[in-house]
Design goal:
- By secondary structure, the chain is mainly alpha-helical.
- Among the domains are: about 130 residues, no CATH class; about 60 residues, no CATH class; about 110 residues, Cytochrome c-like domain (Cytochrome Bc1 Complex, Chain D, domain 2), CATH 1.10.760.10.
- It is built from 18 helices and 12 strands.
- It has a two-stranded parallel sheet.
- β2 and β3 form a beta hairpin.
- α13 packs across α15 and α17 packs across α18.
- Bound molecules: heme C (2 copies).
- The site of one heme C has 25 residues, from α17 and α18.
- The site of one heme C has 26 residues, from α8, α13 and α15.
Length: about 450
């Protein structure tokens, strides 16, 4: 025992001496004859700092690439719902292609607002399309487009050449295309709200909605009536929580699909400020897309506000395998990296916009809430319905019962579908008129126009 200890301390001593010698030699390179420049202030730290800066930049790039892949192409296993349960693949393919019914032709798909990514189309197919040699009334073409992975936000699964399931991706609602090839066919525009997309009509296209009738405890007819009331550009993320299909005035309870760009620096997200981007991503992937993962939000256990969510345990979802959680960091990072696109110069009057900018910060007092350059408040960016002069129906369907100050950059990309959470204001002039009334701003007609030009320039 003692011998061993003594041997160990001897060994440690030796090691210390050897290290000392090595360090001395290494630290005195001049003795070895090398002509190294004298170290500058902080010199020895610099290469390390550079390496770590580089590592951060590399990680950021990798994260953006992985997040983009998830945003565009991941279904999180939700084909188990959209395909295997709702059987949407069968009605898309049609009886002639191994499914049921007449099928979904490309023309009908475009009519529902679905988009095609031109980069996924082989050159020969592009030539045929240009020559009008492709029958856009044939559902087999829709199936072929799915097989090419060309339909934005929809993934087809195939077994022995036949469409066997379909899943959906974030890009379905939060991407469109630039129509560079033809209307509905072009390059992807990630983060843009697809205000042509009729989600309700697409879901209602499923042959069997019993999964939804069981959830809500109502008839298939009722479910279809709710889904068909949404219309283009809208979706109801709260329906699966509270089962409210319609507002008290009888109009649809669905809200507009917002853009998913320009969100960096913005604290709370969604029209009613449910949480951060990553909270909502987990929420949507698990509860709306029906992907497989883990989601925790005990606010959903409120039986009076969220009866359906509380009864079904949506506040604590644990599905295995978890196909979502490990993708959340990169997905979050990617969305924060998508800038709000700048409007084309020709789309607004620069001189009027300059006057509008002064009004926005001054007489119209918009900037008190829409603080530039975020155009929402740094901090808790939430307001009571009364503060913005509207009803509380949608606010009451959320935990904080308020509306989130919308970040206004890139308004020009979503002129379709109206403004405010439910599109109640058909255009920007209507929005300005609303504030002019409820806030008694006393704006002249010319000033209102200037404000509108400014909003178009953001
Ligand atoms: C079926 C259509 C649909 C799909 C699919 C979808 N979203 Fe959304 N998204 C919406 C709607 C509608 C809202 C507004 C919800 C609300 O306010 O209640 C929204 C809100 C958001 C917001 C908040 C934007 C803001 O202005 O604060 C983000 C971020 C977002 N979605 C990201 C995603 C991601 C990431 C995915 C994929 C995991 C996804 N969404 C899938 C329709 C969709
Ligand atoms: C009290 C804070 C507050 C003030 C002041 C305010 N806004 Fe807003 N703004 C909001 C909130 C909250 C919303 C979201 C309303 C909703 O979701 O229905 C919003 C929404 C908007 C929208 C719709 C965005 C979209 O994507 O649909 C526009 C445009 C807008 N505001 C412009 C203005 C202008 C112009 C002014 C000045 C005349 C102004 N706001 C003053 C809080 C404010």
């Amino acid at each position: 025992m003692t011998k061993q200890i003594r041997f160990r301390s001897l060994l440690s001593c030796l090691l210390v001496i050897v290290s000392f010698v090595v360090i001395t030699v290494v630290q005195r390179p001049d003795k070895a004859g090398a002509q190294t420049p004298p170290p500058q202030a902080g010199g020895p730290i610099r290469p390390l700092a550079k390496r770590s800066d580089q590592a951060i930049a590399d990680t950021a790039l990798q994260s953006i690439e992985k997040g983009r892949e998830t945003f565009r192409f991941d279904t999180f296993g939700d084909e188990a719902f959209w395909g295997d349960t709702l059987n949407l693949d069968a009605t898309i393919a049609g009886a002639a292609n191994g499914g049921i019914g007449p099928g979904l032709s490309p023309k009908q798909a475009f009519g529902l607002g679905l988009k095609v990514d031109v980069s996924a189309l082989p050159a020969a197919l592009q030539d045929q399309l240009r020559a009008g040699a492709i029958n856009l009334d044939d559902p087999a073409v829709t199936v072929a487009l799915l097989q090419l992975n060309a339909v934005v936000g929809v993934k087809g699964f195939f077994s022995s050449g036949k469409l066997s399931s379909v899943g959906i991706q974030c890009a379905l609602c939060h991407s469109t295309v630039n129509d560079s090839f033809a209307p509905g066919i072009g390059s992807r525009l990630d983060g843009w709200a697809n205000r042509d997309l009729n989600v309700g009509a697409i879901v209602a296209f499923a042959p069997d909605l019993s999964a939804l009738t069981n959830l809500f405890g109502v008839s298939q007819d009722m479910v279809r009536q709710v889904l068909n009331s949404w219309g283009p550009g809208k979706f109801d993320a709260e329906l699966a929580l509270d089962g409210k299909g319609f507002r008290p005035d009888g109009k649809t309870a669905a809200t507009l699909i917002p853009p998913a760009f320009g969100l960096a620096g913005v604290n709370l997200h969604t029209w009613t400020g449910w949480g951060s981007v990553t909270h909502w991503n987990a929420f949507v992937a698990n509860l709306e897309m029906h992907g497989k993962g883990i989601f925790f939000d005990p606010r959903l256990n409120d039986t009076s506000k969220f009866p359906i969510a509380a009864a079904n345990g949506f506040g604590n979802v644990r599905t295995t395998p978890d196909l979502i959680t490990r993708k959340l960091a990169d997905l979050h990072f990617y969305q924060l990296a998508i800038p709000a696109p700048a409007p084309p110069n020709s789309s607004f009057s620069a001189t009027a916009a300059a006057r509008g900018r002064a009004l926005f910060a001054g007489k119209a007092a918009c900037a008190t809430c829409h603080v530039p350059p975020l155009f929402t408040e740094p901090g808790w960016n939430m307001h009571t319905p009364a503060e913005v002069g509207i009803d509380d129906f949608q606010a009451k369907r959320s935990p904080d019962e308020r509306y989130r100050t919308s970040p206004l950059k890139g308004l020009w990309t979503h002129m379709k579908g109206g403004f405010y959470h439910d599109g109640r204001f058909a255009n920007l002039l209507d929005v300005v008129n609303h504030y002019n009334g409820v806030k008694s701003l006393g704006l002249t007609e010319a000033e209102k126009q200037d404000l509108v030009e400014y909003l178009k320039s953001l």
